[in-house]
Amino acid sequence: MKKEAQNILRIRIAANILYRINREFTIEYKDLDIYDFIVSSVKDDFRFAVKVGSSTYLESAIFAEYINILNSKTFEEEAEHIPIILMCVNESTEETRMGIVLGWKYYNPILYKHVSLQIVNARNWLAFEERIKTMDSIIRILSEKTIGVIKCITINDIDNLGRYHTAKIIYRRIFSNEYKMRKKEVVNEKEDFRRNIYGIPENEYPSDTLDKDLLEMVQQKYPTAKVRSSLMIFNTELRDLEQEIKNFHSHNTATFIFEPNIQEIVNFVDYFDCLKFQFNLYVPSLIEKEYFGDMYFSRTIPLNELKETFEYYLQIRHSVIVV
Fold first, then answer.
1. Is the pLDDT of residue 264 over 50?
2. Which pLDDT score, from 0 to 100, does residue 79 have?
3. Does 113 have pLDDT greater than 80?
4. What three-state secondary structure class fits 59?
5. I need a labelling partner for 300 at 20 to 30 A (CA). Which of 136, 144, 170, 219 fits?
6. Predicted structure pTM score
7. What DSSP string describes 117-152?
8. Per DSSP, which regions of the chain are E strands?
9. Cα–Cα distance, 101 to 98 (Å, whole number)
């Protein structure tokens, strides 16, 4: 009886936490062995299920039994094809950690026996919601605050022995009133055919000062470096990006620094954090990891442009997402 009361308390705490994150959520309680309630968003018909456990649930024999139940389930009903989130609740502090225990890909369930838990709140919920959507069996549009463009800078180089090396810097940009696609009217069937085969031309994607500066800084060291853009609108595109990242064996860092053209820089130290961007440098093998190492690129800003440049990057910094 005591355990049942504790479980009811955890479920209430979990539901209240989700309500605090998003007041538009609708919660439907279920008395099922695979989840405790279903969360729905009225805005975009987004749904996910929640299984609630204690703060030590992952280390318990009960969790092992739960995994066996999920592993044996057939999920024949289409209504069951929704992601399941595990919420581990500490009822004394009313805190919770969340992780994905079951997702979907091409209508096939994906079971995560080793759940990676994280603290989720209103500040980072959007990123966690994106992860849930990548695990959905339904193709969904991402939230307005996260749709945009994926930028991929490919670096190619040949060492002294003639061996070919490659690495990639991948980041995301969020659409805004200023940062948007350049519309082009397709005037004939031939052009329409080419777009269907080869996709949207690169010159129709947005590219602002930051994008151009990053590419130019890389090209100063690697002249053959090129950028490729693609849309990030649906959860399937986010899922493909995450899979691409997983295919890389390792990564270094690529740091871009914008520095003033003066010797005494102490007075401008407050600018430095906003004038530095650090991305992951993805490489296909440990050989490339050792070959490229961590990269540093810099651009010197004339003193008379420093204030304007600082204000510009401070304004658009939030639109850059490291992947």
1. no
2. 76
3. yes
4. helix
5. 170
6. 0.73
7. -EE--TTTHHHHHHHHHHT-SS--BPPTTT-EEEEE
8. 25-29, 37-41, 46-54, 84-90, 95-105, 108-111, 118-119, 148-158, 164-174, 226-232, 250-260, 276-283, 295-301, 320-322
9. 9
Which pLDDT belongs to residue 196?
A: 66
146 within 8 A of 140, measured Cβ to Cβ: no
In this structure, what is the dihedral angle of CA atoms 115, 119, 123, 125, given to the nearest 10 degrees?
A: 30
User: How much of the chain is helix, strand and coil, in % rounded to 5?
Assistant: 35, 30, 30
Write out pLDDT tens, residues 303-317: 778 778 888 888 888
Q: What mean pLDDT do residues 22-51 have?
A: 89
Mean pLDDT of the chain, nearest integer: 86
Torsion sign (Cα): 257, 259, 265, 269? negative
What's at 175, amino acid-wise? F
User: In degrees rounded to 5, what are phi and psi of residue 262?
Assistant: -140, 160
Q: Which of 177, 204, 205, 217 is nearest to 316 (CA)?
A: 177
